[in-house]
Amino acid sequence: MAFGITRIELNAWKEAVARGEIAFLTHYWYDPRFPQCHTVTKVGCADLDKLKLWCTDSGLNPEYIHHRETFPHYDLIGSKQKEILLREQLWDHLQRFKLL
User: Fold this and answer.
1) Nearest partner of 43 among 63, 15, 13, judged by Cα
2) What is the DSSP string of 59-97?
3) Per-domain boundaries in the chain
4) Is pLDDT above 70 for 95?
5) How far, in whole angstroms, is CA 55 from its chain's centroid?
6) Contact present, 42 and 19 (Cβ < 8 Å)
């Protein structure tokens, strides 16, 4: 479940993913397996080859892509999340979710 975003933001991400763009969506998140992490960034793209290449270029294992029927995505958490958000210059994600 996503917290801290609006339905408009979620729908914009879904539309970008469906168009085959690499799209980023950061939101608050809780998973007991990762108690130190409070946010996740979903990097989505309906073009799986494009998403796999993005993962490889980012030093990530494409085997961890979540193969959702309409919204395949890779979950970024922890230090890799911050590293990639900085690289992608997604300042609004970093500031809004206090990742700086």
Assistant:
1) 13
2) T--GGG-B--SS--EEEE-HHHHHHHHHHTT-HHHHHHT
3) 7-96
4) yes
5) 11
6) no
* Residue 27 structure tokens: 């939101």
Q: What is the pLDDT of residues 61-78, one digit of tens each?
A: 999 999 988 899 999 999
Contacts of 57 (CB under 8 A, 6+ apart): none
- Tokens describing residue 83: 């590293």
Q: What is the pLDDT of residues 24-50, one digit of tens each?
A: 999 999 889 999 999 999 999 999 999
Q: Return the number of other C-beta atoms located less than 10 Å from residue 77's C-beta.
A: 17
pTM for the structure as a whole: 0.93
